From TrEMBL:
<dbReference type="InterPro" id="IPR029033">
    <property type="entry name" value="His_PPase_superfam"/>
</dbReference>
<dbReference type="InterPro" id="IPR013078">
    <property type="entry name" value="His_Pase_superF_clade-1"/>
</dbReference>
<protein>
    <submittedName>
        <fullName>Histidine phosphatase family protein</fullName>
    </submittedName>
</protein>
<dbReference type="Pfam" id="PF00300">
    <property type="entry name" value="His_Phos_1"/>
</dbReference>
Length: 196
C-alpha cells in the first residue's frame, strides 16, 4: 500500500519514504507492545510480515532509498534490515521513531487502543492510562525530519516506524489538527507513504 501527499509545511531538501513495519508477532497475537522493555528484544516480524516484505521488495515501486533510519524495536529493525539488504545500504537506529508508549496498557489486548484514541480526539496533550501524548509523539517524529533536513541534501530517506506514530506525524505534516489523527488513512503493515 502506498500513500502520496504534499506536506502543508513547504519544500524539503530530501524525499522521505515513511514505512510501517511488516506484520508482527504482536499484531498476530493482538497485543499492545509499546515499551522498550518488551519491544526491543521481542515481538519481531511474523511469518505474514516476512511474506509481506518478500512481496514488497520483489515489486518495489518507490524511489530507491539512499539512507535508512528505523525505530530500534525488533519488528522495525527486522523490517529495515530486509530493505537495507535489498538495496545494499547501512541502516541506523533512531529511538525517536519508536512506538508510542501506551503506558499501563502495555501487554493488553490491542482492542484497548480505541480507549486511548477516544481521548486523543479530545486533546493532543492527554496522558490517560499513562500514555505518551499525541503532541509528544508528533514533536519527536517531526524532530527526526528536522534533523535530517539540517544534515542531508537531495537524499531519499526511508524511515521505518510504527502505526500510531506514523499516523500522528502524517497528520502533523499535513497541517491538520492532531486530534484528527485517527481520521486520516492509516498505513497498513509494510505500507509506505511518500513525502514529495
Amino acid at each position: 500500500m502506498s500513500i502520496r501527499f504534499h506536506s502543508a509545511l513547504g519544500q524539503r531538501h530530501n524525499r522521505y519514504l515513511l514505512m510501517r513495519h511488516g506484520h508482527s508477532q504482536a499484531n498476530a497475537r493482538h497485543l499492545i507492545i509499546s515499551t522498550p522493555a518488551r519491544g526491543l528484544a521481542e515481538y519481531g516480524l511474523s511469518e505474514q510480515g516476512e511474506a509481506q516484505l518478500d512481496a514488497l521488495l520483489a515489486d518495489w515501486r518507490w524511489p530507491a532509498p539512499t539512507h535508512i533510519l528505523h525505530s530500534d524495536f525488533l519488528r522495525t529493525t527486522q523490517t529495515a534490515r530486509r530493505v537495507a539488504a535489498h538495496f545494499g545500504l547501512e541502516m541506523q537506529a533512531e529511538p525517536r521513531l519508536r512506538e508510542r508508549d501506551f503506558g499501563e496498557l502495555e501487554g493488553a489486548a490491542d482492542s484497548r487502543y480505541r480507549d486511548v484514541w477516544v481521548h486523543d480526539a479530545r486533546s493532543p496533550e492527554h496522558r490517560e492510562y499513562g500514555v505518551e501524548s499525541v503532541a509528544s509523539v508528533a514533536a519527536r517524529m517531526q524532530g527526526v525530519i528536522a534533523s535530517l533536513e539540517q544534515a542531508l541534501r537531495g537524499e531519499t530517506v526511508l524511515l521505518v516506524s510504527h502505526g500510531d506514530p506514523l499516523q500522528i506525524m502524517l497528520t502533523a505534516l499535513e497541517g491538520r489538527l492532531l486530534t484528527e489523527h485517527r481520521d486520516r488513512e492509516a498505513l497498513l503493515p509494510a505500507g509506505i507513504a511518500v513525502l514529495d
